[in-house]
Amino acid sequence: MKPDPIDQLGARLFEIARNEPVPHAAEQRALAAARLEVARKPEKIARFSAVRGWLMAAACVALAASAALLLRAKDEGLGISAEPPILAHAPSEPRSVPSATVRETPPIAPIAPIAPIAPTAAVTAKPVPSSAALPVHSAAASLSDELSALKIASSALSAGDPQAALRALDRYDRVLKGQKLRAEATLLKIEALSRAGQTGAASALAQRFVDQNPGSPLVDRARSFVVNGSEEMKR
Amino acid sequence: MIGIPSKAPPAGVSQTATHGLSIDSLVAQHYGFIWRVLRGLGLSRADAEDATQQVFMIAARKLDAIAPDRARSFVYGAALRVANNARRGLRRRREVPDDEVLNEPEPEARSPEKMAELVRARQLLARVLDQLSEKHRRVLVLAELEQLEVPEIAALESIPVGTAASRLRVAREKFRATLLAMRDQNPFVDEP
Q1: B-chain residues within 8 Å CB-CB of A146?
Q2: Alpha carbons B56 and B62: distance in angstroms, whole number
Q3: Three-class HEC string of A99-161
């Protein structure tokens, strides 16, 4: 029986699609980006822990202040205050109003200053590799060299040292002339500039990245650093 | 296995989840699968590359939560979501050409004519698949591009095996009818 030509055509179309070569360069870029993402995860967790710690400290202070105000309001409601009441008609009589129970209540201790929460070990203990440790290449660097450079920048950011990150990224540009992970490097630079307080430069670079790479998987993250005109004016 | 240079991660940074799934093995095992699925779902080569990278960045962030035996399901689910977003983005910027320019040598393309034929064949397949509903397209892509069995398709789609079988049957019928209607675009007409 003669095979159906439409079925044959369909089978052939699918066979061609199946045999389309997987782009290995893109696969390597994806792996490098995914590795960086894994490397950045502890930093995010540490940052979240630190933020959570500060929030808890702020909540404790607010709670203590509220308690103090509440007790004071209660005291005032009962007519008990730090100042003795003025008794015009019986100045010489010993005061009987203050109750022992109220007196026995220990005075509210002044709110002790809460020691700043120490940054988590992941932030402080992580050594920032020196950018001098970067491989020196004048020709195009390998993917692993570029990845190492970006990991140094990423570690510096994790350790709260945006200047070291910027130095590592500068070296990535000048010495390695990195190309394979250019998008990831740009994003790290945007983040480093932002954390270094150079929000204007970070925003401009982020905007340029968004304009030039509208389809990049990193574009949403870059966009989050773009400061619009009105916000910029406020600064 | 691809020739990824193995570089030790920086101190204190694990590239492996607590249950032993590493991002390297995840990419090595599933990159091709995800890339082909995204191509089958209608993304251009460049968009499929970007979207596949995005899928593995999502996987990298959730590495600890991915059970090794559910890794393929996880990346497949992520790919469907990323593909939907990518296609929405594409609709917004329709000026972007559908690039079929190959930057890697293709074994089947022995001549420029053959290359053009391959491109036309892929375009025809994309046009036919575009006529199918999303659910029919997905099962057909899994069956014909990935050559998965019905139970595997059912598992990935999270549907009963019977539903997957009937959906695949309907998808094949619709594909055939659509291809029949577009047979004048057959890029192989010159061949016997």
Answers
A1: none
A2: 10
A3: CHHHHHCCCCCCCCCCCCCCCCHHHHCCCCCCHHHCCCCCCCCCHHHHHHHHHHHHHHHHCCC
State both tokens at B13. 């940074």
Alpha-carbon gap, residue B175 to B128, rounded angstroms = 7
CB pairs under 8 A between A and B: 161
Per-residue pLDDT tens for A117-159? 344 333 333 444 544 455 555 456 777 778 878 888 888 877 7
- In the numeric block, which tokens belong to residue B2? 């691809």
Stretch B79-106: mean pLDDT = 65
What's the farthest any 2 CA atoms get from each other in chain B? 63
More confident residue, B165 or B112: B165
Give the DSSP per-residue string, B107-131: TT--SHHHHHHHHHHHHHHHHHHHT
Mean pLDDT of chain A: 70
User: Minimal CA–CA distance to B27: which of A188, A26, A220, A42?
Assistant: A26
Q: Which residue of A has its CA nearest to B147?
A: A18
**pLDDT band at A96; cut points 50, 70, 90:** very low
Whether A6 sits inside 8 A of B180 (CB atoms) is yes
**For residues B56, B58, B64 and B69, what is the CA-based torsion angle, rounded to 10 degrees?**
-60
Query: Region A181-187: what's the mean pLDDT?
Result: 84
Residue of A nearest to B181 (CA): A6
- Taking only the tens place, the pLDDT of each residue in B13-72 is 445 655 668 899 999 999 999 999 999 999 999 999 999 999 999 999 999 889 888 999
- Residue B22's φ and ψ, nearest 5 degrees, are -105, 155
In angstroms, rounded to a whole number, what is the distance separating the alpha carbons of residues A201 and A206?
8
A95 pLDDT more than 50: no
A31 with B24: Cβ contact below 8 A = yes
